[in-house]
């Protein structure tokens, strides 16, 4: 992206889509733990969050086909619901018969935006932003919502820490192990998933559009001549 390559910038730079890879890796790790603690059928990735239909307040006229009446009535137009999605849904996580929606966010506390801010306050603010966006919509569909907020260093937020403890309790019952042992197991799994992704952000290539970085498409050895270094006469 042309900016100075620092560790803080590498962990937040969106060029190349590596931050999305880190986000997906964290979601998949949480889903894999949920499949072990519950069942594979209880895990859903990218569940839809329906917030209902909203009426447009600008007084625009609605077409007859959409309004169910004649055009030109001046009735407000009804817009389709926005397809918001969570990251992982686990059925029976907090309570039997209910579905828990989880949405992950990873925040780099070393970013210039958070200079002088307490880490706990930054994570709590991120949790508050997630809950203000998705909590009410989930409650309307009788679902629970839990934000999984982590720092890039692996520090969990308050909600994520509570979810990890609940996951450890379910794993202890499923695997017939001690609860304290499973607490460490869950914490290590999530921390290692984040560490692997951070290594990719720090050392991975971001310029996927450069044709020189692409793997040549060859069907036989004849194309190897194209990779031979060119020698000037």
What descriptive keywords fit this protein?
globular; 4-stranded mixed beta sheet; two-stranded antiparallel ribbon; 6 helices; alpha+beta; 233 residues
What's the β-strand tally?
8
Report the portion of residues in β strands: 5-15%
Low-confidence stretches: 53-71, 210-214
Can you count the helices? 6
Shape: globular
What structural class should be given to the helix and strand makeup? alpha+beta
| Structural domain count | 1
What Rg is obtained from the alpha carbons, in whole angstroms?
24 Å
Largest sheet: 4 strands, mixed
- Strands of the biggest beta sheet: in what spatial order? 1-6-7-8
What is the residue-averaged pLDDT?
78
* First-residue to last-residue Cα separation: 37 Å
Helix-strand topology string: HHEEEHEEEEHEHH
Q: Percent range for helical residues?
A: 25-40%
Descriptive account of the structure:
The chain is of the alpha+beta class and 233 residues long. It has one domain (7-52, 79-204). The protein has 6 helices and 8 strands, in the order H-H-E-E-E-H-E-E-E-E-H-E-H-H. A 4-stranded mixed sheet has the order 1-6-7-8. The chain has a two-stranded antiparallel ribbon with strand order 2-5. The longest helix has 25 residues, at 179-203. Residues 204-218 have a biased composition (Basic and acidic residues). Residues 54-84, 204-233 are annotated as: Disordered.
Condensed summary:
The chain is built from six helices and eight strands, in the order ααβββαββββαβαα. The protein is of the alpha+beta class and 233 residues long.
